[in-house]
Amino acid sequence: LRVHRRRKQVTHTRPKFVTICCGVSGESFAFRASGVQEEDMVFVTVCPEDVTILRARYPRAIIIRGDVRDPGCRAAVMKYGAGADIVMVAILCQPSSDASLVHDPRDYRIGIGHAAVSLGCALRGRMMIAENVAAFGKNQPVAHSITQTAMRAVYPQVTEIDLNAKHAMVGQQRNRRFVIGAAEGADLNRAEEAVKLQQSLRKAGTETCPTFREMLAPYREDVRSGKKRAVFIHQRRGAPRGSDGRPQRCISSDRP
After folding, report:
1. Which of 55, 85, 239, 251 has the most CB atoms in a 10 Å sphere around its CB?
2. Which one, of 77, 68, 72, 76, lies nearest residue 47 by Cα?
3. Residue-level pLDDT at 123
4. Which helix (H) or strand (E) holds 106?
């Protein structure tokens, strides 16, 4: 066992992670599955519905409900988030999304994103990941630059990775940009190589995600039996339109 631990570099530390403005999202499941204890998880959100779900799912975690611009909320995060190993920050994506027709650099939501990023940087975790839509740099170049500058002031290594959820076993389009800051010694090249591999596999025709039917079949008999054959989706820009001019709102549940 000692040889195995030495070879695999298994540690006996208790990693701690903090999420800011991430709501109820997938990274908490990933960290919990990786062995992070609930007592070492800190969630920061302004949404009461988020709090209800998080408290039910992680009853021993620290959940802070508040506005990241509020001094009291920021003080609580600094208190309970001290010593974090990984900090996750979700930047409000609406001002940067290609789904929007307006990309106003004065949008007040951009300021909330800056407050969230500055709070994450203040914790000085061993690694910080700030997430936004992949079009962040294109549609909000000034805000993007401010995020990079803030993280480079804290982390000696800062890189950016674009990853679509369909490349990583999620059956939907969700193209996101991850700005990653890390301490010296962290090997970010491995993450970049893994993403490139997934993207190349998809491009070569390999199925890198399930269909909607495959995702929902274990939970819904009507999907499993074929009674439900389509999924109702949001209105997309550039969606095909019928003879009546209305946009397509349903897609096949078997669509890859």
Report:
1. 85
2. 68
3. 98
4. none
Residues 27 and 88 sit within 8 Å (Cβ to Cβ): yes
CA distances from 232 to 213, 240, 247, 250 (A): 13, 14, 12, 5
Q: Is 159 helix (H, G, I), strand (E, B) or coil?
A: strand
Are 176 and 133 in contact by the 8 Å Cβ rule? The answer is yes
* Integer Cα distance of 159 and 182 in angstroms: 9
What is the rounded CA–CA span in Å between residue 208 and residue 74? Answer: 39
* Cα–Cα distance measured from residue 226 to residue 246, given in angstroms and rounded to the nearest whole number: 26
- pLDDT tens for 41-67 read 999 999 999 999 999 999 999 999 999
How far lies 207's CA from each of 126, 168, 177, 216, 229, in Å? 34, 10, 22, 17, 20
Q: Please say whether the dihedral angle defined by the alpha carbons of residues 167, 171, 177 and 180, taken in this order, is positive or negative.
A: negative
What does pTM read for this prediction?
0.87
